[in-house]
Specification:
mainly alpha; 6% strand; two-stranded antiparallel ribbon; 9 helices; 60% helix; elongated
Length: 220
Amino acid sequence: MNIPPFHGKTDPEAYLEWEKKIEHIFECHNYSERKKVLIAALEFTHYAINWWNQLTVNRRRNGECPVSTWDEMKAIMRKRFIPTHYHRELLRKLQNLTQGSMSVEDYFKEMELAMIRANIEEDQETIIARFVSGLNPEIADTVELQYYVDLEEVVHLAMKVEKQLKRKGTSRNHFSTSKWSQKSKWGPNTSKTPYKAYQTPIKPSQTKGGRWDLQITTAP
């Protein structure tokens, strides 16, 4: 099982992704804490390996003990590669998260991922309330009227409502298109629009007594 490399970029999401992958590997093997530290450090490259070597030298020079557990190593790496404002930004993003143009499924995944990254643990009722409040109004209004037991049921219900709304929208568009096509078959002369009257003056020489008469004609 290959351990992913870590380059040492100041990218919180990249670091957390690396941390999650390496922890999955550790769960599959009965490594000691010291060995976990050594295995993780073996995959440091570029800036990360230079940073780690310098940190090790400084700890030895200052009379500190070597990093001996994976939890200690994680704490040191998080302090270096995750900015202090990152957690606040995650919380703000989660508070302002709404469905918008996303599908229900993508919106739920985005919310779930934001909660994992922010390390937020909430009871199921709170998570359901958070999810429903961020749905688009036409979906949320219907979901709130339904009976549900757990979060998964609410998500599936919202996805079902979304599909129903899409089908209704497609049906309306098809009906409007058919109605317009049917009207266009009648042609211009079959319209019920009343004819306009045109007043055409006739020259005095064309009338008796030299009066101007009006000739009424109709045109479609």
